[in-house]
């Protein structure tokens, strides 16, 4: 697939996320009408891996509504969020202002982040939880991250495990509740077209641009892209919990997140790399 075709599909995704934003703002899933608790989106191991953030320059790529970005600011970081959706960035700015958080938000495609941020360098680049699947070219992404980090800076990716993305979220007609492999684990087969009439949150149907495109990226592809770009992988964790119950038979754990009763399989991973 050509870069021009990639750009066309990413523009479709951008329009889709613009259309999703008002649905997400009003959803119970995000709960923005309640007291904002951005740390509920973080697994405890994330803070262990990230370490002290006070006084650090932290960039959150593909930040959507910027709730996690606010958590970094509350821990003393100079926080910047970047997203390609104009509607999302506008909403993120309003949410931060209402919460009193000092966060800068920038609207740009990830691949244009270096130019959009005027060459600014960061101590930490954070991304994840449903972000990488919207990027067609991981090599280009990894090279962009390398350019955004100052020497010694760290990238932290916390993403849904590719095994999770391979499992069907609900049974097809005539099937039982067993989790079945429905999608590729490995990338390379091209984008998956989805009709995003309804998103992962509650709320009404999306109005307007409902087409979206996702790319599968296996763990090997992610690690290889980062090492080829000159980043050194320092830690890789696999976790069996999610911040919301994707399947009805998931049970709540002591952390407040959700896990499958059995078997235990990886649902999330955390990857720490350094320049």
Automatic annotation (TrEMBL):
| InterPro entries referenced in this protein's UniProt entry, alphabetically | Methyltransf_12, SAM-dependent_MTases_sf
Q: Name one GO biological process term.
A: methylation
Q: Listed GO molecular functions? A: methyltransferase activity
Residues in Methyltransferase type domain copies: 59-155
| CDD domains linked | AdoMet_MTases
Record key words, sorted: Methyltransferase, Transferase
Identify this protein by name: SAM-dependent methyltransferase
Q: What is the originating organism of this protein?
A: Streptomyces paradoxus
């Amino acid at each position: 697939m050509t870069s021009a075709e990639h750009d066309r599909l990413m523009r479709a995704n951008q329009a889709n996320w613009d259309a999703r934003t008002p649905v997400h703002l009003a959803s119970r899933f995000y709960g923005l009408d309640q007291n904002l608790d951005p740390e509920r989106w973080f697994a405890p191991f994330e803070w262990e891996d990230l370490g002290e953030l006070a006084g650090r320059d932290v960039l959150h790529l593909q930040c959507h509504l910027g709730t996690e970005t606010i958590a970094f600011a509350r821990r003393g970081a100079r926080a910047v969020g970047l997203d390609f959706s104009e509607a999302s960035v506008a909403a993120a700015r309003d949410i931060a202002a209402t919460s009193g958080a000092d966060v800068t938000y920038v609207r740009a495609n990830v691949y244009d982040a270096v130019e959009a941020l005027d060459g600014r360098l960061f101590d930490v680049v954070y991304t994840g939880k449903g972000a990488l699947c919207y990027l067609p070219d991981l090599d280009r992404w990894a090279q962009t991250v390398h350019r955004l980090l100052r020497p010694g800076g760290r990238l932290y990716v916390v993403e849904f495990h590719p095994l999770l993305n391979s499992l069907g979220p609900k049974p097809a007609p005539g099937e039982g509740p067993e989790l079945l492999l429905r999608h590729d684990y490995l990338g390379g087969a091209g984008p998956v077209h989805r009709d995003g009439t309804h998103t992962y949150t509650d709320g009404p149907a999306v109005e307007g641009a409902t087409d979206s495109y996702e790319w599968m990226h296996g763990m090997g592809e992610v690690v290889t892209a980062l090492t080829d770009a000159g980043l050194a992988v320092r830690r890789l964790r696999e976790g069996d919990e999610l911040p919301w119950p994707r399947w009805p038979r998931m049970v709540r754990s002591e952390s407040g997140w959700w896990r499958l009763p059995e078997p235990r399989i990886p649902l999330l991973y955390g990857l720490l790399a350094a320049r």
